[in-house]
Every structure is written in structure tokens, then in C-alpha cells.
Amino acid sequence: MLYPLKFHPILKEKIWGGNKLKTVLNKPTKENNIGESWEISTVNDDISIISNGIHAGKKLDDLIKEYSAQLLGKKVYQEFGNQFPLLIKFIDAREDLSVQLHPDDVLAKERHNSFGKTEMWYVVQADVDAKLIVGFNKDTTKEEYETFLKKGKVTELLNFENISKGDSYFIKAGRIHAIGGGSLIAEIQQTSDITYRVYDWDRKDSEGNERELHTDLALDALNFKGDRSFKLEYNKDKNKINNLISGTYFTTSTIEIDNILKRDYKGLDSFKILMCVEGSGTINTVGYSENISFGETMLIPRAIENISIESSNNGMKLLEVYI
């Protein structure tokens, strides 16, 4: 039997992490430097474990082996096998993350036998003056970039974006970026944990060591263009599907609901992910009902083709993701 699946979050301590995953999203931790909550993952040693229903306690990759196309979709399973194709996270940045980028599929395959990493961000909450770095502020050459990097002035070439709740950004592989302090982000990305860190604000850990940089690897992966095609504009109609991005790696929409919305997935050969980024509600399907609350993530198997999303009181906002 397949039903809407929930998972135990995989919490990651980070040098830049804060306490919003605990205080805002109610993640189960007593630590105050948790930077990431991996919501759905089959990355190596970080396999999500189901927390609800008759499959509680099972690992996601084992459930994929058991149900294959019924869980993922036929085309998805043919391409990715027992690996879940997306990595779903919440990120809390108390301090600025490193300036970084990710290789594309070709380079990642060649160097790391991995998929590349194209991703998107949705701003769940932002402190006053919180910012993101997305791309260069103008077209830049490799030579100019290297000169500024060596002088410790690379940030002078970067594009800073003031952010607020509900803003969304699409980060193609190769685009330089960084999440700024004061940001609480929902992140949807290809299943890859490969990061090329190029600048870390001269930060040192508790033992006085700077984190490793990957400046040489980054050179061949960087997109030096200063284009502004990264911020996603979208409708914000209630009780409707509002598309954010439709691409090769994932399609993401927002669903803001204060009533009941029936969702028909017939003909969609993919799993569905629901991330609750505001409020709470209930996901109903034939013979099964599951609550979802702010900060929770749910996986709807391919075999489930119809759901109803219900929320009253103050309503609910979801990110809906599929391939």
C-alpha cells in the first residue's frame, strides 16, 4: 500500500547555522547551529526514513526498490533507478553562507560520477536587510574574476538581492551564489552534494582553521554572464496552482489555499512533493488522510492520482514539486 509519506528530518550542523529550524519550523533539536534540514534524500549516508503509516521506519531507497515506478513514475525510475532524483531541504542561515557554485551534469559526471546541481530557492522568512548573492553584477571574464578573487575583493563583482518572504530564485548549475544571514529558505535541487566553494568571508572554525576552497575546480564550471534571469515572477491566486518554474529537472508551483482544492494528477508520470511553507492543513486521498503543518514535507507516490487539499482557519501555502 502506498499513501502520502512523511519523513524524519535529517538535521545538519553548520558553522553558519542558527536556531530557526527549531524555533520557527519546529524541527526536533536542542542545538542552536542547525543550518539544514534534509527533508527528502537518498544521498549516500543520508537516507530519509519514513515517519508515518505502515511503512514507518523504512528507508526511502528500500521503499523505492519495493515499489519502483509505482512510487517514482515509470520514466523517473528508468532514469534514476533506486536513487531519488531530488534533494529537498530547509536552510537556516544565521550567517552568510560561502560564495559557491555547482557543476552541471556533464562536468559532475566527468569529475565526480555524479549529477550536477541546478536548484531553486523559496524564501520562507527573511530578517530585515537579509540578502542573497545571485550571479555577477555584470558580464565578467575569467581573468577579471581571478584578479578580484586573489585580492579578496570578489564580492565587488557579485549581485546582491534584497529579499522578503515569498521571493523565489532559480539557480542554474554554474551560477555563483550565496544565501545571506537572516534567511530561512526552502531549497529544491538535483540530487547532488557537490559544491565548489570559492570564498568564505575569511571565516575560521573553532580550531582556527579556514574551510577548504575549490577555486581551481570552479573556474571551468562558472558562468561569467551578468544576466538577471534568476528571480521568478509568479501569480499569487488563492485556491489555484501558481507555476513558479517548469524545467528539465523539476516543476514547482505554489498552492495557497483557504478552502478545499482537488488536485488531479492523472497523466503525470511522476511522484509529487508538497512542502508546507505557511499554515497547516490536510491531504486526503482514497482511504487515507494526513495532516501537514508549517515546515513539514510530504511525498505523494505516482500511484496516487487524485488528492484533495484542505485548509481552514488561517489557510495554508504549499510548494508543489514534480518531474
Q: How many whole angstroms does the radius of gyration measure? A: 20 Å
Secondary-structure element sequence? Answer: EEHEEEHHHEEHEEHEEEEEHEEEEEEEE
**Inertia-based shape:** globular
DSSP strand count: 22
Average predicted local confidence, pLDDT: 96
> What is the makeup of the main sheet?
9 strands, antiparallel
Give your account of this protein's structure.
With 323 residues, the chain is mainly beta. Helices cover 14% and strands 39% of the residues. The protein is built from seven helices and 22 strands. The strands form five sheets. Strands 1, 15, 16, 17, 18, 19, 20, 21 and 22 form a nine-stranded antiparallel beta sheet that branches. A six-stranded antiparallel beta sheet has the order 2-3-6-13-8-11. A three-stranded antiparallel beta sheet has the order 10-9-12, with no helix packed on it. A hairpin with a 2-residue loop joins strand 18 and strand 19. The longest helix is centred in the middle third of the chain and has 9 residues. The chain is globular. The two termini are 22 Å apart.
